[in-house]
Amino acid sequence: MTIAWREAMNTGDPTIDADHRHLVDLINAFEAALAGGGAIEHKRIARVLLGLVEYTGEHFKREEDIQLAVRYPYHDSHRRSHRDVLKKLSTIVGDYTRTPDGPERDRMVRDLGAFLKEWLVDHIIQSDLRMKPYIQQMQQQKVLADKRRREAVAASERMAAEKALAEKLAAEKV
Ligand SMILES: [Fe+2]
Question: pLDDT tens-digit profile of 85-106?
């Protein structure tokens, strides 16, 4: 079954959310390659899976950097779970790509589909959504800091204008 993106899956960080959407697309592409009822197209599936492993590694790195930026307190354990998932995913995909065509390979690929969905749902829904309040807090702090900066600039411009006016008036009196 195709996974549909829902608003509730957004963490609020545009980079993480775009990555997650792309992961959903890749898993849906994997499903589409499996569907159809005919012989399983292992070549196409292997390509999608290798792309998925690569992209997952890149996504984890981006996500970990964002966690540090928003001072996410569970960064270390999240990072460990990323390593575990990536290792497991690479092992399963590696085993699959090395297995010759046949019933064993067909069975492996179906198990893999179940693992991918379970992992994705667990990764996004259970784990990544915990970052949401920290992402929001950081975004609010940024908005506030920008507002303060703009106010400070406006205040110094006002003071400079007042000073210039005072100097002009003083010069006219002389
Ligand atoms: Fe993620």
Answer: 999 989 989 999 899 988 898 8
- Secondary structure in 3-state letters for 87-150: HHHHHHHHHHHHCCCCHHHHHHHHHHHHHHHHHHHHHHHHHHHHHHHHHHHHHHHHHHHHHHHH
Distance, CA of 26 to CA of 2 (rounded, Å): 11
Q: Is 161 exposed, middle or buried (0-12, 13-18, 19+ CB in 10 A)?
A: exposed
Alpha carbon distance 136, 156 (integer Å)? 30
How far, in Å, CA of 67 to CA of 130, rounded? 11
CA distance 20 to 22: 5
Give the Å distance between the CA of 33 and the centre of ligand 1: 24
Tokens of 18: 């775009």
Within 8 A by CB and 6+ apart from 72, the residues are 78, 131, 134
> In angstroms, what is the span from residue 63 Cα to ligand 1's centroid?
6
Domains of the chain and CATH, by start: 7-131 (1.20.120.50)
- Residue % of the chain over a pLDDT of 90: 56
Which amino acid, 8? A
- What is the distance in A from the centroid of ligand 1 to the CA of 110? 23
